[in-house]
Amino acid sequence: MEVVIVPDAAAGGEIVAEAMARLVRRKPDAVLGVATGSTPLPVYEALATKVRSGAVDVSRARIAQLDEYVGLPADHPESYRSVLRREVLEPLGVAMDQFLGPDGTADDVQAACEAYDAALAAAGGVDLQLLGIGTDGHIGFNEPCSSLASRTRIKTLTEQTRVDNARFFDGDIEQVPHHVITQGIGTILEARHLVLLATGEGKADAVAASVEGPVASVCPASALQLHPHATVVVDEAAASKLKLADYFRHTYANKPDWQGI
Ligand code: GLP
Which of 62, 169, 199, 246 stands 20 to 30 A from 56 (CA)? Predict the structure, then answer.
């Protein structure tokens, strides 16, 4: 995998947004897989700036959701569908009928999961999947010891993840659902390009385990090592526990610009 160390979150956002813009210029109806959480926000802001300046038109792109809470009404402000509408689709000018996501309110959750995997396949698969990382190394909501071959399915959140996400629910952990639907690790690995973005010291251990540790389900993001085109973009703080940081800096500094990430 390629590791790109950037000075700060804004620089990381710009690099990832530029990769998305290049993709959409080449393939206007590309499927962009997007993540929630605080980390990807600079990406969406940088891409929206490019849209407003006319540098790229993403209006034909399709936007695919990574994960969703089970049981929150779709119009709940913290359902990931609502979050992505607010933070991604509206600023980018993408219509909701180009949005792909699982139904977190379905009575038959398993059928909803299977329907989502089928919808992703029918759309031609995800071209670029943006990922954040949990403090425990989760991607999407694939908590530690998720099968590396897993498909989209229901998962139970760890208490740590519920604590981490309580900030979106007025700091009240009781409001954070226990169950979620997440693209499986096997599903995520089918995207043509995986881009994991991590910023801040709190992610340094998870980043080091994912990049330099063994491939192991106890650290779900380590599955990126199995992917032929995986890029990890980290700021200095998130990179602070990487033993090979100087090597990663050297290779990126000497990379031809036309290649992108
Ligand atoms: C949630 C999301 C993940 C995200 C993680 C980290 O658990 N399901 O997709 O990567 O939070 O969020 P943040 O970027 O806010 O640290």
Answer: 199
Whether the CB of 199 sits within 6 Å of ligand 1: no
Close Cβ partners of 115 (under 8 Å, ≥ 6 residues apart): 102, 103
Q: What is this structure's pTM?
A: 0.97
**CB neighbours of 108 closer than 8 A, spacing ≥ 6?**
none
* Active-site annotation holds for 136: yes
| Model pLDDT for residues 181-231, shown as the tens digit of each residue | 999 999 999 999 999 999 999 999 999 999 999 999 999 999 999 999 999
Q: Which residues pair with 194 in a beta bridge?
A: 129, 230
Instruction: State how many domains the chain has.
Output: 1
Phi, psi of 147 (to 5 degrees): -60, 135
- Sheet arrangement for strand 153-156: 67-69, 179-182, 153-156
Range of the domain at 19: 2-259
- Exposure string over 106-125, b if 16+ CB within 10 A, otherwise e: eeebeebbeebbeebeeeee
Q: The CATH number of the domain where 223 resides is what?
A: 3.40.50.1360
For 14-47, how does the pLDDT look when each residue is reduced to its tens digit (9 = 90+)?
Answer: 999 999 999 999 999 999 999 999 999 999 999 9
pLDDT > 90? residue 115: yes
Q: Catalytic residue at 227?
A: no
Angle at the Cα of 67 (from 66 to 70), degrees rounded to 5? 160
Q: Is 75 a catalytic residue?
A: no
- DSSP of 44-94: HHHHHHHHHHTS---TT-EEEE-EEESSS-TTSTTSHHHHHIIIIIHHHT-
Flag whether pLDDT at 74 surpasses 90: no
Which residue, chain included where needed, has tokens 């006319």? 54
